[in-house]
């Protein structure tokens, strides 16, 4: 049977209000009485009803975090950053996984609002979700995704720069025949911006007519794609625009017997955990993932505590090139 503050009040012989004030750290209770009440609460294994507390307050001490794929290490590292920033803030996070499914996304948002959450950090699958949050008056920060002009607080990385850096690294090594494999998505425009960065770097070095962008939906399709490409042409440079595609591409290259980097230099945009310790180590373009989460959490806390009353904040972070063994000069 759940222990309530009424049970604690009865045992100590004080009012429910006194117990509530003692356990919440409010004034009006002597330190001696507070200590006795806390001791009884521990003995009875009392746990506060956070949902009920949230209903009594303007906002509960919850922050909703809705991401596209909790199984993706990118999001787990961002969530770690969010948690790091919330340490000491007496905040709890509720995590949802939308799988880029609009209906599932709406379901989680409605549940978070029902808990009277303080605010939401969201990597959104649809602009409709952002309109819904704004209509409901829920403070929110968009995580790691450009909102394409939708007015709201957001923290993300410059995706054009990521594609540009990856391509320029290959160009600087002497490559003039470079292809780009991109993730196909109806809701994520960031991949298109990475491809734009690739085209920008090629254009700056007189390679505009040689640009080729190929799209696929997942790693399995990426494997088939690179096999088909290699039968028709053998570029010297490859940029993989999303690390979730990299396993498929590399499986295809391994099956073809392609030597990296002797025959093909490869740059992966993203942060695969295996990039630094396989027999082939891979050059990557990486984002400050924990920092993204930390900044999103701090931005939401500042917004909900009225420390920010001005226009929406747009925080754009930079990525960085990590050179490893998968890139080198082109073959003669």
Question: What's this, in brief?
Answer:
By secondary structure, this protein is α/β, with parallel strands linked by helices. Helices cover 44% and strands 17% of the residues.
3D structure, described in words:
This protein is an alpha/beta fold and 332 residues long. Helices cover 44% and strands 17% of the residues. The protein has twelve helices and twelve strands. The strands form two sheets. A six-stranded parallel β-sheet has the order 2-1-3-4-5-11, with helices on both faces. It has a six-stranded mixed β-sheet with strand order 7-6-8-9-10-12. The termini are far apart. The mean pLDDT is 88.
Describe the structure using short key phrases.
332 residues, alpha/beta, six-stranded parallel sheet, six-stranded mixed sheet, 12 helices, 17% strand, elongated
Ordered list of secondary-structure elements with their pairings:
Elements: H1 5-12, H2 16-24, H3 31-43, H4 50-56, E1 62-67, H5 73-86, E2 92-97, H6 102-114, E3 119-122, H7 127-136, E4 140-143, E5 153-157, H8 159-172, E6 178-183, H9 190-204, E7 213-216, H10 219-232, E8 237-240, H11 243-256, E9 265-269, E10 283-286, H12 289-304, E11 314-317, E12 320-322
Parallel strand pairs: 1-2, 1-3, 3-4, 4-5, 5-11, 6-7, 6-8, 8-9, 9-10
Antiparallel strand pairs: 10-12
Helix pairs in contact: 1-2, 1-3, 5-12, 6-7, 8-9, 10-11
